[in-house]
């Protein structure tokens, strides 16, 4: 988490682009901010203001798309889930890059 926070301080605009992208917003809205997923203020050792201040308060970086029972059992549930996963790819890539994970050479 410390590594991710350091990367957020270095590139807050890059991360913001991933979670404010049209596909991301259309599929999941925003990062999850459920009770317990956010600090009240920036963690010790990080700037309490500035472009990354809000991102620094996250304790995890998750996003979800809720399905109704009907949606979860619909014939197109796999396609819907695939669209959601594709919308999450830019965020996952940014996080993995920040952690130093290499991208797969092929899929």
Task: Describe how the helices and strands are arranged.
Layout lengths: L1 H9 L1 H8 L2 H7 L24 H4 L12 H4 L4 H22 L9
Explained architecture:
This protein has 107 residues and is mainly α. The protein has helices at residues 2-10, 12-19, 22-28, 53-56, 69-72, 77-98. It is globular and about 50 Å long. The two termini are 27 Å apart.
Helicity level: 40-55%
Order of helices and strands: HHHHHH
**What would you call the structural class?**
mainly alpha
Question: What portion of the residues fall into strands of 2 or more residues?
Answer: under 5%
Tally the helices: 6
Number of strands: 0
Radius of gyration: 15 Å
- Mean pLDDT comes to 93
Note the overall shape.
Answer: globular
| Unreliably modeled segments | none
Q: Span between N and C termini?
A: 27 Å
Defining key terms:
mainly alpha, 107 residues, globular, 50% helix
Short description:
With 107 residues, the protein is mainly α. It is built from six helices and no strands.
């Amino acid at each position: 988490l410390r590594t991710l926070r350091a990367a957020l301080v270095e590139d807050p605009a890059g991360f913001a682009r991933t979670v404010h992208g049209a596909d991301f917003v259309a599929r999941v809205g925003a990062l999850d901010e459920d009770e317990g997923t956010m600090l009240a203020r920036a963690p010790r050792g990080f700037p309490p203001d500035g472009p990354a201040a809000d991102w620094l308060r996250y304790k995890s970086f998750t996003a979800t798309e809720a399905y109704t029972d009907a949606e979860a059992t619909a014939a197109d549930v796999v396609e819907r889930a695939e669209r959601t996963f594709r919308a999450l790819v830019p965020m996952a890539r940014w996080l993995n890059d920040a952690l130093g994970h290499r991208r797969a050479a092929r899929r």
